[in-house]
Design brief:
7-stranded mixed β-sheet; alpha+beta; globular
């Protein structure tokens, strides 16, 4: 089942995958996140400010990214998203920077130990990958990429949020989050 008409409208209005965050990507993800985490189910979407860095070795990011966090009405963080402009995906340095930012965000949010498993999504335009953090083992988990020695291979962002595989993966994670929220 494809995304609803609200998302399809943005999909059809996109001339290319090189539009800026403000023109296309920000509104697209706002709609997708509101559809996936509806207010009626007591989820709240917050754009959040830039990451407070935990070490001096991390270079602050450019203005070309926007983070969102999803909370329950009890203010438990259950999911977060960091979105970057699509043209940066091909740059190994930018992928490493995005990976560092995701890991630092987990350290910030996962340290609160509010839920047993915290999910995050990293997006370069519509190309996405998912991370998770297990509060008991304190391990950040990523899907492995076959045949790659690269720590941040471009294939890690092999799902597209606008295609059925990317949509299904997000909605499967959302369903797991709903179950976690119900039991915690």
């Amino acid at each position: 089942m494809p995304w609803n008409d609200n998302v399809v409208t943005f999909m059809s209005s996109a001339a290319s995958d090189t539009q800026t965050i403000k023109e296309y990507i920000y509104p697209l993800y706002t709609r997708i996140l509101y559809i996936s985490f509806p207010v009626e189910d007591r989820f709240m979407l917050y754009p959040i400010c830039k990451l407070t860095y935990l070490t001096d070795t991390v270079t602050p990011p450019s203005d070309d990214f926007i983070p969102f966090v999803i909370r329950t009405e009890l203010h438990k963080v259950v999911f977060f998203v960091q979105i970057y402009v699509p043209t940066l995906l091909g740059d190994l340095h930018e992928r490493k920077q995005a990976d560092n930012e995701m890991r630092n965000r987990f350290r910030q949010l996962g340290g609160s130990r509010q839920i047993p498993k915290l999910y995050g999504m990293c997006a370069f335009g519509t190309h996405i990958c998912f991370y998770s953090y297990d509060r008991d083992t304190r391990v950040i988990i990523l899907a492995p990429v076959e045949n790659s020695d690269d720590t941040v291979p471009i294939d890690r962002w092999g799902l597209n949020i606008l295609e059925e595989d990317g949509r299904r993966k997000l909605l499967d994670i959302v369903e797991e989050i709903r179950q976690i929220v119900r039991t915690n």
